[in-house]
Amino acid sequence: MQPITGEPRTPYFLVDETRLTHNLEILRDVQERAGCKILLAQKAFSMFSVYPLLRQYLAGSTASGLYEARLGHEEFGGETHVFSPAYREDEWDELLQYADDIVFNFPAQVRRFAPRARAAGKSCGLRLNPEHSTQEGHAIYDPCSPGSRLGTTLAQFDESILPLLDGLHFHTLCEQNSDALEETVAAVEKKFGRWLSQMKWLNLGGGHHITRDDYDVERVIRVVRHLKETYGVQVYLEPGEAVVLNAGFLVTSVLETLQNGMDIAILDTSAACHMPDVLEMPYRPPLRDAGQPGEKAHTFRLGGPTCLAGDVIGDYSFDVPLREGDRLVFEDMALYTMVKTNTFNGMALPSIVWRDKNGNRFLVRRFGYEDFKERLS
Predict the structure, then answer these.
(1) Is the Cβ–Cβ distance between 127 and 192 less than 8 Å?
(2) 189: part of which helix (H) or strand (E)?
(3) Using CA atoms, how far apart are residues 239 and 62, in angstroms rounded to an integer?
(4) Is 17 helix (H, G, I), strand (E, B) or coil?
(5) 3-state secondary structure of 354
(6) For residues 96 and 114, what is the distance between their CA atoms, to the nearest angstrom?
(7) Percent of the chain with pLDDT over 90
């Protein structure tokens, strides 16, 4: 990594070592006191230059397919777990080179792929759908929503595949506290409890906001210990957001301001390209020193520089009017945002900056024209 002097060109992501280490220490404490293993969900954060730090605290990584599995195997080490709604035949042999634990979505996939996986010495599991939702208004992120393609329901469960399984997996939470986990575990025990003691491991998936200030850590420890003591299984948790919660920022600059019934600021950061959850969810990213519309003296609509009419980050209020060149800092931007960036409209991807525990900044990666050009030809 290259040391940085002066202020980097915006936009850029900044990941902070001190904040990241704070989260990792909490996760290690949960691992040790609960007797479980915690894995990094790479779908939320795959900045592999910091994997050497993460693997000092976590047991391994999880993947959603071939490329993430390879990245975890090559750069993280430890255990590499993978889940996909459906696996490709033409990728299967290569995937077996990287994955240690492979979770299947449906009994048909178990019957098709698990015999070869077990012959290769891999551990196999099945994802469950307990059909018990603990979310409201977030169907896009709710694996228990009606018509979900994720996980096997009780009605679909096939006991004939049990000899091919080493474990069971469920992932139903999203940014939730441990009360939702406890409630979900009860639903899983009610529907699938008869088979849990036949398993070697149980993976409780992600969505656990363990490092959030108000998270009930003692409850999650009780839940994990209950499962271990009752069924004799190794328990896994695979948080993504909790690993990097509040550890990253997106720094942007105001390019121009205008008036059209309200004050508008055009930033060099795009919602569509650099923080697509704003449009998908919708999600309102926290902005340092800003308030809700009307809360402070001057309200601005913040928009991106693309041609998309809906490229709007949101309405925020400020103590003083925004001006060209002002720098704004969006907080909690390491999770999901970084992995979802794209180059629509030829937008340059934000650079990536690392700030170490001494406050020194280093350039991890700067993206340019070739990164945009080479994607499609």
Answers:
(1) no
(2) helix 178-196
(3) 9
(4) helix
(5) strand
(6) 11
(7) 94
